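To: structure subgroup
Subject: Chain for Friday's discussion

All,

I'm putting the inputs and outputs inline so they're searchable in the archive.
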Amino acid sequence: MITQEEFLGNWKAIAGAVKREYGQITGDDLSRVEGSIERLIGLIQSKTGKTKEQVKHFLDSCMDSTSSTVNRLSDAAAEYAGYAGEAVRENYDRVAESAHAGYRQTMQTVSRRPLESMALAVGAGLLAGVIVGISMIGRRR
């Protein structure tokens, strides 16, 4: 038999299953149950003529169905997380390889043309300094 905690935790699923299985039980009927397993069992018995054991078996099967659904959803989420992790690793590897290739190419260029590389670095530094200086002057005004 399901516990009170399981019952309360899965109330919406259980209520939906009760309505599907026993069409004569309404939402108003279920709202009067007020979270009590025994009241729900009594309600189903009075509306359907089922025995207490039959109702308990039905509620247990509702819990099995709910647990099975939760397990399937959990497995699917784990599978998607695995795919996402794999995609992140693959993209990281591609970016790392691309950065490494760029570094190798830069080092080759600097070693083949050291003076031109030095001039380019000095020019870029001067340009950056001028831009920062102009922006600081503009802020003072």
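Points worth raising on Friday:
The chain has one domain: 4-140.
The chain has a mean pLDDT of 84.

D.
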